[in-house]
């Protein structure tokens, strides 16, 4: 078995489709089919069979797919440890980040790090903060940036805290919010619960949702064009003087803050590249990282 064979099994198990698997791996369908047949001959089992709706794995195939994930992780970790034994800081850093940070913060952070360590490459996975915790737990990534704690029991460090605000192009009054159109956006369940709990403590009526969009930056554009108000992290309107903001306060009159954290498993610090990146991230001013 070659390393690529384990990758074939993993991707095929994810895609459940020969055509899509070939596209992901950049190989022809005949070559992929031939390689699958060779893997089956090597283990003397039937790994997959074709159905009307794509590829189906046999129990033996499911077991091989589980082994493939473990094998690929072990191979990657062996290579990382060998590279880390040298004196140079090099390798591929696997990073998980939610959409907002990936778009507005991460490019500059990675660029600054690469200026100091040009031999480091990056592989970035964009996901919800809650999913990033799962990626960390499975060691599919080295470090993860998240917007809330999510009960992570590994290593974590707060990089930035920013106030949450009510943002609108027109000046609005706090007590009028239930009657005004609100622009909502898809976000993590825990953050959604935070906003819903705050709303419930301040208003007896449900918010008037004028529209729901997929991402925070789309929500920003709607607010800028006067289509409603939104409850958002204040930094997305940091340089926009035309947007009126009302800070969200808790029952004690303190501003409600949203954290940005870097998380990782302690054993990842054994890799020099990862350790150096974490130390670097802790020194960066995230408030001005645009």
From TrEMBL:
Limits of the HTH lysR-type domain: 1-58
Record's keyword terms, sorted: DNA-binding, Transcription, Transcription regulation
A Pfam family hit: HTH_1
GO MF terms held by the record: DNA-binding transcription factor activity; transcription cis-regulatory region binding
CDD domains tied to this protein: PBP2_LTTR_substrate
Chaperone found in the keyword field: no
Protein family per UniProt: Belongs to the LysR transcriptional regulatory family.
Protein name per UniProt: DNA-binding transcriptional regulator, LysR family
Source organism per UniProt: Pelosinus propionicus DSM 13327
Lineage, uppermost ranks: Bacteria, Bacillati, Bacillota, Negativicutes, Selenomonadales
